Amino acid sequence: MPRAETEFSFELRTCRWVEREWRPAASDCPIIVARQLGTKRRRWDTIVLECDPDGLRQRAKFGPERLDGDLLHVVRNAPAEWAYYRDALPHPGYPWRYVRETIHRADDRGVVETRRNGNRIEIRRTWEYPDWLERIVAIENKPDLDKSAARALASQLEYDVAMGLADEVWVATRATGERVEPVLFEDLPVEVGILALDPEALTGEIAWHPRTLAVDDRGTRILERPDGGTRDGSAARFEYVDPETKVDKRLAIAERAYERGWRSFVDTMRHDCRHFQLRAPDSRQALPYCAANDRSQSAAECSGSCADFEPEPPVWRTSGWPIEGGPGKRVRKILEKRRRRRRPDL
Fold first, then answer.
1. Which portions of the chain have biased composition (kind: Basic residues) (predicted)?
2. pTM over the 0.85 mark
3. Hey, which of 28, 39, 64, 224 would disulfide with 237, CB 3.0 to 4.6 Å?
4. For domain 66-125, which architecture applies?
5. Alpha-carbon torsion (280, 281, 282, 287), positive or negative
6. What is the pLDDT of residues 155-168, one digit of tens each?
């Protein structure tokens, strides 16, 4: 396996290692792995969802697409029997006309039923929304953690620990083979776990175990830090986040992870370029590869602005080659099939 040349490649190897090796406390607990998800203020490199097996199968009834925050508000509170929607749903904090739009979207997807009773819209749930999410584990990927990267990462991890949105927070870094991994000497919060990963061999070792964060308690969102140097003793600005808000945000993140998975990287890369390939030198994982640059590329490099971008020749997309469409379409189908396999009963 060639050396992971970019943080993007390392991130994909981390996702695959987690998918193969992660062992939650409950041995039969399935996991879903996604990447580049979070909130408006904080995005994590890798997300691991530990799920209730029965709940995850029930979640499949709602389809492979995510339920956004508005849809969750309707689906989670829809009654078992017909009721006027304003009586059945808690006030959303915004005008009811937007709730009506969401109800129609939910009806179109078949996740709630609607009917007219005079001028009133009544709703009834199709299925009860399951309690399928057990834990969220957030992983930051830093293959080469130098001093400047460690300083920037430390403040991000302090934010995660104070907020308590994920049950655990980890840092995955490239294993050096030294007796004590250098990352242990960095000024990182003690609550954060450290994974030393060998991306070539796809093996990992826990260098520091994380602490479980208080996701059920009120969180602290750090808004601003003192920036006047080492002698600046002024206080940081922060605000509290109530547990109910955290529950909603956790579920919204989980829904996005359920829809995307980590193999969705093909959605933001030019797989229709004649130079785009998937390569699996060790048969463990299919990684994107650029034949023009003769290496694994990053998602930012693989775009329409790339100087080496060339569309697939039309002849590649005729006569059903190799099945339907050209190589790029086949790449997408392969990754979508593997992503779908991680979600039971789809």
1. 329-346
2. yes
3. 224
4. Orthogonal Bundle (1.10)
5. negative
6. 899 999 999 999 99
